[in-house]
Amino acid sequence: MLIIVMIISTLLVIVWLILLSRVTKEDWIDAACSKVLSNFETIEKLRQNDKKAKEKLKEYNDLVGIGLRAIHKTDLEQKIKKVESDITDLQQGDLKSVNVITMPGYALLREVEAIGKGSVHKTIMTNCYELYGKKYAACKTKNLLARLLSFPIIGVAIMLMLGAIMAGIGNASAGAAIIAIGSILVLVLVYAMYDELSDKVKKRRSAISRQFPNVVSKLALLVTSGMIMDRAWKETAFSQENELYKEMQKASEELDNLVTPEVAYSNFINRCNTKETAKLASAIMQNLSKGNAEIAKLLKDMAREAWHERRHMAKRDAEKANSKLMIPTMLLFLAILVMLMVPVAMNFSSI
Known about the structure:
- By secondary structure, the chain is mainly α.
- It has helices at residues 2-21, 25-57, 63-91, 103-111, 119-168, 172-224, 229-237, 243-256, 261-272, 275-286, 292-350.
- It folds into two domains: 2-170, no CATH class; 209-312.
- It is built from eleven helices and no strands.
- Helix 8 (243-256) packs antiparallel against helix 9 (261-272) and helix 9 runs antiparallel to helix 10.
């Protein structure tokens, strides 16, 4: 049995190394592109966290507050500078920050074309289109698929090898545990990478749905006051920096670049992928030639429905929160019950 495990482990390592040797220059470029996009995401998160920290530090107006703000600013600048330096290195061809463990997955994707035509690829591609846009969706999809393919091969191989080593030194039970639990953990972590993308998309759609009532209410107010639809869209889009507003900004920029309204609003629908935004953009496209009177009424009705749906969503979220709190509450109740009953039982036993 031990020999079989070692053979399987060795074969997996050999397969992984063969795939690594077949990685091409284009694969390294794709991996570097994905890393650059991830770095830009990191910078964006750092700046968002900076805004939140600044709001909290505004409460301190004394010397301590000034010192904390100065330290925070210096720390932020250093982190951003480090990430920007990595981006520059990647753009200049220095690939030291690219994860080598991922690279065999690129080769496997290229060797087995069926992987790029399956349902998993389509699902990942759709989610990446929403998160990163049409321009970068293919790059991020390829990177995630490469990780999903490469990590299990080398991960399971390492676990089998460690288990075989433990069994070889006389601890067979520990070796079997490492093989079983370790391999399961590797597969669970790989699935978590896949599920993380879907989770990001769900959170993004939820955030867009929460922001929609404010957006459509502002649009209705501006259009009713006499502002043309394009101007009202732009004013609303650049009033905040949340998810829905950013997608509106992209649509506004496309309109400024002489993209036809039908194409710009269709792209907006595809990027947001929620029923509320689809209804809004479709209504705008259908009423482009009818003037403000018709669209103003539609926006008012839409705003009323959106706030009604928002109240229902808040109730559903509250019910979900209550159900999630049920298990901790029961555990706490059992703990208190044990704390009360143990002394009583000890007293009875001592009589």
